Amino acid sequence: MxxxxxxxxxxxxxxxxxxxxxxxxxxxxxxLHGATVTGAPFSAVQVTTHQQTLANGNVIQxxxxxxxxRDSQGRVREETTFTGPDGQGSHSMVxxxxxxxxxEWRLNxxxxxxxxxxxxxxxxxxxxxxxxxxxxxHQGSANVVKEDLGAQTVNGVPATxxxxxxxxxxxxxxxxxxxxxxxxxxxSSDLQVPVTVKISDPRFGTTVTQLTNISRAExxxxxxxxxxxxxxxxGRAVLVSPAVK
Length: 245
Description:
By secondary structure, the protein is mainly β. The chain is built from one helix and twelve strands; from the N terminus they run αββββββββββββ. A hairpin with a 4-residue loop joins strand 5 (103-108) and strand 6 (113-118). It is globular, with a radius of gyration of 19 Å.
């Protein structure tokens, strides 16, 4: 619970899809992290599935779901539901990023509280922005190979694909044989966001993150404001999640 509270205090961050120099890792995180995109409103459900097969053949599988909204001004709303480690009980957290107001709100639906803070508190040198996907691996590395996968329709929208493969040489991590980590990404040029990211890592298993139920309609403007019945605080407040029952 303390670890979960610490994560909430930091706010949702995109998981690094490929560790080290932005190459390896366990997931793609939110597909909307990065540069602000305007003029391309949409709403969708982001579904992330993690699957790991253990040495004895046992399979561990988890799924996370986030409702995503982006309006024509580039404002973003993320609604994430967390489930308890035993699969029982859940709680939600909402993050609203407004590049127009240069502010971010973190809403706790369980306590009906909101924390507002300017984006400059997150990093220096200008407001924090969001874009599609996690950091890209260094393509200049001799151990990294990039492939263009062409264009096709993915989850109902046209997209172009790339595959990045990193080979970890034998002995680099105490591994007896070389290991390959593969990241396949399909990006919608219309939405300027990935619609599917698949990461295969022999150390952690396979993670697939994709946008489903995509709608190109303009989201309701009320989604990008704290509800009137919420208590709003300012500064770097910490939202501690309630115990999962």
